[in-house]
User: Fold these one by one.
Assistant:
Number 1:
Amino acid sequence: MIHLLEVHQLKISEASTGKVIVHDGSFQLKQGSCLAIVGESGSGKSVTCRAIMRLNKPWLRQTGRILFKGENINALPEKEMRKRRGKNLCMILQNGMGAFDPSSVIGVHLKETLSEHFGWSNHEIAEKMKKAMESVMLKNPSEVLNKYPHQLSGGMLQRIMIALALVLEPDLIIADEPTTALDTISQYEVLEQLIQLRERLGVAMIFVSHDLGVVKRVADDVLVMKAGKIVERGEMQTIFLAPRHPYTKYLVSTKLALSNHFRRLMEENSVAES
Amino acid sequence: MLKVDCVEKAYKKGGLFSKERQQVLNNVSFTCDYGECLGIIGESGSGKSTLGRLILGMEKADRGTVLFEGGKVTDRRVRSGKLSAVFQDYTSSINPFFTVEKALMEPWNVRGIARREAQEKMDSLLDQVGLTPSYRKKYPHELSGGEIQRVCIARAISTQPKCLLLDEAISSLDVSVQLQVLDLLIKLKKIYGMSYIFITHDIQAAAYICDRVLIFRNGRIEEIIETSRLKDVKSDYAKKLLRMLITF
Amino acid sequence: MRVVKNLWKDKLAAASFLVIMVTITAGIAAPLIAPNDPNEVNMNLRYAASSWEYLLGNDHLGRCILSRLIYGIRPSVLWVLVALFISVFIGAVLGFAAGYFRGKTDALVMRMCDTMLSFPGYVMALAIVGILGVGLENILIAFILIKWAWFARLIRTSVMQYAEQGYVKFAKASGISDFKIIYQHIVPVTLSDIAVLSSSSIGSMVLQISGFSFLGLGIQAPNAEWGMMLNEARETMLTKPELMLAPAFAIIIVVSAFNFLSDALQVALDPKLVTSKKRSFGTNAKNKLQEKEVAS
C-alpha cells in the first residue's frame, strides 16, 4: 500500500543556535488512516505538524524529506506550497479565536479561502458552506457566517473549521489540539464531528493531543513524542493496553488514575442502585 | 465558613449610554464548610469565573451577599491572608519582573512577616509543592507550566489560608501534569486542612478531589451533589454532561 | 542595577547614554565649561573661522558658537526634560487611575483627554503663547498642557492591559491595597512602556522647542538656544552655510541618542527579551514574536 504521507528524518532546529527541537523523526501515514501524536507540551508535536504544513517560523530550520503523495513538499517553492495548503493539506487549530480574522465576519474569511483555491462564485461558496455547516450541526449557517469570531463560542469556531475542511475536501487533515480548549460538551461534539468527517471524506488525519482519552476515540495509530524524539509507535490498542516505553507507561497511568477514579465513582453507584 | 447568599450580577452591554444589561449570575446560593472541597463545574461563559471573582471580593455583587467567616468578603481585612487563589493562565500568574522568591514574599510582606522568618519558611514551602530551593532565583519565563502552577500554589498557601479558590487552575496543563498537581493539592489539604473551591469544566478532575460538586449553567445552579453520589444526578443538563464525557 | 548592566552590553545604547549624560552635565555646568561668554558681542570676529580661542568659530555678531551651543543645552534639552517629566507625571497619575479603577474615573479622565487632544498641538501652543506672552517658560507650560493628555491616554492603555493579569488578580484577592498593587505590580511593568514613550517623545519635543524658537516664539535674544541659532544662521544660509552645521548637528545627535536609548531601554527593561537576546542574536521585534510564540 502506498503511503499518503511519508516523513523521513525530519529534523527541526533553531537556525541561530543550532538547538535541535525535533530529532530525526520518521513516520508514515496510510491513505484514510488516523495517526495521533501524543506527548506533553514542549515535546515537539505542534512543531512537527507545522513542519509538514511548512508553516514554522523562519528561524526554525527543517531538514529531511516529507513525501506527500510521493512528492517531496519540503523542497517545493513557497508558491507551490501555498496551493497545497488548504486544498490538499488542511489544518484545524487549537484556538478558534486566533484562527479567524477578528476584524471581519467569518463569512468573508471563508469566502477568501475558498475562492483562492477553487475560484467559485460567491453564491456557490455560500451554498456549499451552508450545507457543510448544517452537516456539522451548526444551526442558522447564514447567521453564523455574518458574525465576528468573538461573538461565537470556541466549540462553534472549531466546528466552522471542520465545515471548511468538509468543503475543501483535503487529502490530509492536521488537527492540532482541536479539543483541548473546549469544555466537556463541545469537546464531545467537536470530536464526533471529526470522526464523522473522516467517515464522510475518507480523509487521512494527523491528530495531535495530550489527552489520551480523546486520542483513543479517533486514532488508529499512535506516535508518542518526548523532548523532540519519537519514543514509541504502534497501533492504538497495543500502545495503550501494553505500553513498552516508560514514558508511555507514565502517560497512560496518569490518565488512567483520573479515569479510574471517576469510573469507580460511577460504577459503585450503579451497584448501589441495583 | 463561606456563605454565598442569593447573589446576582449583571454586566453592562455595549457603550457608555447603553441600558442593555447581561445577567451573568442569577440567584446563586451555596455554602462551603471548613475543610471541604467544593467543585464548581460549568461551561465557558456560564459565569463560573465571575462567581470566583465575587467570592474573592474583587467585584461587588448587584444583589445578595458573600460572607466569609461572617464578614463581608469585599472588605479587605476579612479576606486578608485567609482567602487565597490560583488562576488558570499560568503565563501571567506571576509578575514577569519577579523572581520566584519575590513572588512568594508578596503575601508575607502584606502581613508584615519579617524577612528572615519568611526566608526560613520559603524552603520548606517550596519543598512542600515539590520544588527545590534552587528555584528561588528563577524568573517565571524560565519555568514550565506545571512548575509555575506549583509556585502559584505555594504562594497561595503561604499565609495558611482557610480557603483556597482554584479558578481553572489545572485546565491549561497537560493531563499528566494535571494529575501531579491534583495529587499535590490533596497532599496539601491533609497538611493544612483548608477548604478548596475548585472551579473547572473538567468533571473528571473535579471528581478526583472534590467532596461536593455544584453544576453551574447560564448563571444558575443546576444541581449540587455529593461527589460519591454523582451517578444519581437529577437534572437533564448534568446527565448530559456526564454522558458526553470522554473517558479513557 | 540589572538594567544598567544590560544597557551597558548594548554598545549603541551605551554610547547614546554617554552622549546624553555628557550633554546634560555640560548643560548644568555650562558656565564652567564654556570657553567664552555666549552673549559677548565682538564685531571684529564676525564670521570668523574656527581658531584655538573660538573652537567652532563665531557667528554674525562675533559670538563664540561653541559657548552658545553649550549654553543652548539648558533651554533645548534640560528645560525640555523638566517639562517632559512634569507632563509624564501628570499623565501617569491620571493614566494609572483611569486604567486601574476603570468605570467612572476612567470615563472622566478620558473625556478630559479627548478635549485636550481635539486641539492640534501646535495651534494650542501658539494660542497659549499668544495669551501668556512670548518666552521659554510659556512654551514649556504650553507643552505640559498639551502633552499630559497624550501620555495619560497611552499609559492608561498600557495599564489596562496589565491590570487584568493573573498576578494582579492574585494580589487583589489576597487583600493588598490598590495603591500597593499599582506601585508593586503595575508601575514596574508599565515603566518600560513609559520610558519608551517618554524617551521617544523627547526627541520630538526637542525639535518642537527648537522649532518655536526658530519662529521667534521661544527664548528671546540674546540668549542662546539651538533652534534660534539655526534661525540666526538662516540669513546667511547661502553664503555661510557652515554656521548652521553646529546647532543642526547638536540637535540631530541629541535626538538620535534619545531614540536609540529608548529602543535599547525597551529591551533592557524586559527580563524576557534579555534572556532571549542572549540565546539568539535576532532583532528585538523578532525575539518578541518568538517569546509570544513560546508563551502561546
Note: Strands of chain A lie at 3-14, 20-30, 34-38, 60-68, 71-72, 89-92, 172-176, 204-209, 221-226, 229-235.
Number 2:
Amino acid sequence: MTLIGFLSYAITIFLMVAGLTIVVSWGNLIKTLVGLGIFQTSVYLLFIAPGKLIGGTAPIIDPRFTVYSNPLPHVLILTAIVVGVATLALGLALVVRIREAYGTIEEDEILALDAENPDDGGPRE
Amino acid sequence: MALAVVVIARSRSLFTVIILGGAYSFLMATVLTVLDAVDVAMTEASVGAGISTVLLLSALYLCKKEEAAPHGRLWLPLAVSITTAGMLVYGTLGLPAFNDPAAPIHTHVVPRYLNDVMRETGVPNVVTAVLASYRGYDTMGETTVVFTAGVGVIALLRRRRRQKQDASA
C-alpha cells in the first residue's frame, strides 16, 4: 500500500484518538460531549472515504456520467448523523439535570460530593 | 481540522470549545463534499454545525462557562489512546488502499443498486432511493430512535420546571 492510499486512514485515526482522549481524560461533561462528537465524525470519515472513486461523481444517476462514488456508506452515515444528534440532545439534558442536582458539571467534584453523602446518592437542592 | 481539534482539547473556555466545534463540523462538511457525499455534507452542515451548536450553547447557558483546572493524571488516558492508535494503524494495514476500484466495497452489492435504481424506484438520487425505498423500514425505525430521545429530553427537563414552580409557590 502506498503512503497516499494510507493517508485517509491516518486522518481518521488521528481524529478518532483525539476524540477518545477528550472523552476519557477531561472531566468537564460538556467538553466530553464535544469529544464524543469528534469521535463520531471520525467514524463518518472512516465509512465514506473508501467509497470515493477519483473521477467519479456524486451518486445521482445521469446519462452524462458513468462512474459514481459508492452510495451505500452515505446512507448509513445519514442515519448515524441523525442518531448522533439525538444522543447529544439526551446527553445535554442529563448534563443540565446533573448541574441542577449537584451545582457543578465537573466529574471529580461530583464524585467528591457523592463520597460526602453516600446514603442518598447525592445532595438534594 | 487537526488544528481545531487540538485547540478544542487545550482550551478551557467552553464557549470557545463549542464555537470551534461548529467550525470543525463545517470543515468536515467540506471534506465530505470533496468525497462526493453531498447528501451527508448537507446533513452534517445543518445538523452537526447548526442544531448541535445551538443545543450545546443552550446547555452552556444553563451551566458554568469555564472548565476547572485539569488534574495531573493525564498520562494514563494518553497512554491508552496511543495504544488504541497503534492497534488501529495495525488494523488498517489489511484494508484496501484509497481509490481502489477493485475493493470489495465497490464490487459487492452497489453495482446492482446503481444499475437497477432507475427501473425499480424511478429516483435518480441513489442515496434517497436506498434510504426511503430499499431501506424504508430502517428509516422508520430511526424516527423511533429520535422520538425516544425527544421523550427522554422532555421527561428530564419537565421535572425541573415543576420543581421550580413548587419552590416559588
Note: The domain at 3-116 of chain A is CATH 1.10.287.3510 (Helix Hairpins).
